[in-house]
Write a structure and sequence with these properties.
By secondary structure, this protein is mainly alpha-helical. It has 8 helices and 2 strands, in the order ααααββαααα. The protein has a two-stranded antiparallel ribbon with strand order 1-2. The model has no long low-confidence stretch (mean pLDDT 87).
Length: 142
Amino acid sequence: MATKTTTDEMRAAVPSTIARSDAKAVRTWKKAHDSAVNSYGEGQRAHRAAFAALKHTHEKVGDHWQPKPAKGPSDDQAAQRAPASLRRPRPTSEGVNAKASLTHLRGVARELDIPGRTRMAKDELIAAIRKANRRATAAARK
């Protein structure tokens, strides 16, 4: 008889930022990762594929992933398909939804308590959110 995997068991097998996220983020990452492992084998490539899939439905806010208002790629790198993404890699936004509106990014910056957010341009907001996300993730791992 097959046993159902508990949420705790699922969260134990994913990166820490995903384990701190909602159940949909965990399921999305695991399903994409398992599929990538079947295609590419275990390793970095499978992890990259799983994160690419997650970036289409979620964005990184602080130390966890939250559902995006609209599905789609978060940045130019996530918008590329393989093998172009490997041949001509573009800078990533590290999970920040760079395709989101300025209003949305300011809301994320407000949630992360980023000072000066109302005067920042879109690129500055993306960089500030990336920095705040890195800081929050590092603090959560301690």
